[in-house]
Specification:
Elements: E1 2-7, H1 15-29, E2 33-38, E3 49-51, H2 55-67, E4 71-76, H3 81-92, E5 100-104, H4 109-114, H5 117-127, E6 132-135, H6 138-145, E7 154-156, H7 172-180, E8 184-188, H8 197-210, E9 215-219, H9 226-235, E10 241-243, H10 249-257, E11 261-264, H11 273-280, E12 285-288, E13 298-300, H12 305-318, H13 328-352, H14 359-362
Parallel strand pairs: 1-2, 1-4, 2-3, 4-5, 5-6, 6-7, 8-9, 8-11, 9-10, 11-12, 12-13
Helix pairs in contact: 3-5, 8-9, 8-12
Length: 363
């Protein structure tokens, strides 16, 4: 079995990139011959990670792996034109002995496809070349079925490998924050309004009435932007913030593990890796109700700062709870094996009798 993962690889440590890194680590640990074709910003060397920025290098390296029969697993958001160009390009390459799988990650995908019939047609055509499509939620699956993708070809599987959640040393700044805050919350930050920064700041003001020393540790990009500074000033929460900047993923996990609760106040989500990471670490997690959340997440009505503050208080009071989380690694490993076996059987039939049988026909 030889598997080529195609997608972003850290840095930066976004959701898709983190999952690709986790899955890469899991498969390597299982002895699989696995490589990553890194189409993100990348730049940091890692074993079996091949940088492929630019159309020509990407096409050359991808074609070589398809021609030699590697199983190709694409990871992309599905919420922008570039994502569907990638999906269509990989799915349409000739190479019948190179099975294709694609995971679509974004919670914005349903709205993106619903906005245009042309987009839905593009998605249906782009996905026709894949043996399996993995959707990270039922909402994503429903959107794809609405495009005409056969439901039988779609698996719903959260993009998460619980076995790969390994906290690293906590940065000194995070330890200092922990020592001076009776209650320390943590939150992954991004400049996109999808992440709910303004809402969290309003809830933080309310929490400060009961917990004068409450702190919110923020990590991620955009923490020095003018928009961030403006929101801090308008919400009057500067004294409650612990701004940690972009952290290595293991350090971010270390911070989450030292928090009293992890907060995910997003306006959209596919299936948040950070929510599942917090739960895997036993940290109480509060998240918006914009998608189905794993147990035992405490959810609040999206956009409601008062309810967010109330649910955070309940989560902190209840304390840690350890509930095993899903691990996509074994299921994907099984899927790769199934596709490889089916391709081997097809090749044998074609050579012996000229009668090939596809997986879909067999079902």
């Amino acid at each position: 079995m030889r598997v080529l993962l195609v997608g972003d690889y850290p840095p930066p440590h976004g959701g898709v990139a983190v999952h690709v890194q986790q899955l890469h680590g899991y498969l390597r640990g299982c002895g699989v011959d696995v490589k990553v074709l890194d189409i993100g910003k990348g730049g940091r060397p890692a074993p079996d990670v091949i940088p492929a920025r630019g159309a020509a290098p990407f096409a050359l390296r991808l074609t070589r792996h398809v021609a030699t029969g590697w199983t190709i697993h694409v990871h992309t958001s599905g919420n922008n034109p570039k994502s569907w160009v990638l999906a269509g390009m990989v799915g349409s390459l000739p190479g019948p002995k190179s099975p294709r799988v694609i995971t679509l990650h974004s919670g914005l995908l349903p709205d993106y496809l619903a906005a245009s019939g042309t987009r839905r047609n593009i998605a249906r055509v782009a996905l026709a070349g894949y043996a399996r499509v993995v959707a990270v939620s039922d909402a994503v699956k429903s959107a794809l079925v609405g495009c005409g993708v056969p439901a039988v070809n779609i698996d719903v599987l959260p993009a998460f490998c619980a076995s790969q959640v390994r906290p690293g040393p906590v940065p000194a700044a995070a330890e200092a924050a922990r020592s001076r805050r009776r209650v320390l919350l943590s939150m992954a930050h991004h400049p996109s309004p999808v992440y709910g920064r303004a809402l969290m700041f309003r809830a933080l003001r309310e929490l400060a009435q009961a917990w004068p020393d409450v702190g919110l540790a923020l990590f991620g990009p955009g923490l020095e932007s003018e928009a961030f500074i403006r929101d801090v000033r308008e919400a009057r929460v500067a004294g409650h913030l612990e701004v940690l900047g972009e952290l290595e993923h293991s350090a971010a996990l270390g911070l989450i593990a030292r928090s009293d609760a992890f907060v995910r106040p997003t306006t959209h989500d596919g299936d948040s890796i950070s929510v599942r990471e917090a739960l895997t670490l036993g940290v109480p997690c509060v998240a918006s109700d914009v998608c189905v959340r794993p147990e035992p997440t405490r959810v609040f009505a999206a956009g409601n700062a008062g309810e967010l503050a109330r649910v955070i208080r309940e989560a902190v009071a209840a304390g840690p709870m350890h509930v095993p989380q899903v691990d996509a690694g074994p299921e994907l490993l099984s899927l790769y094996g199934e596709l490889s076996s089916n391709n081997g059987l097809k090749s044998s039939h074609e050579q012996g009798s000229g009668l090939g049988e596809t997986r879909h026909a067999a079902q």
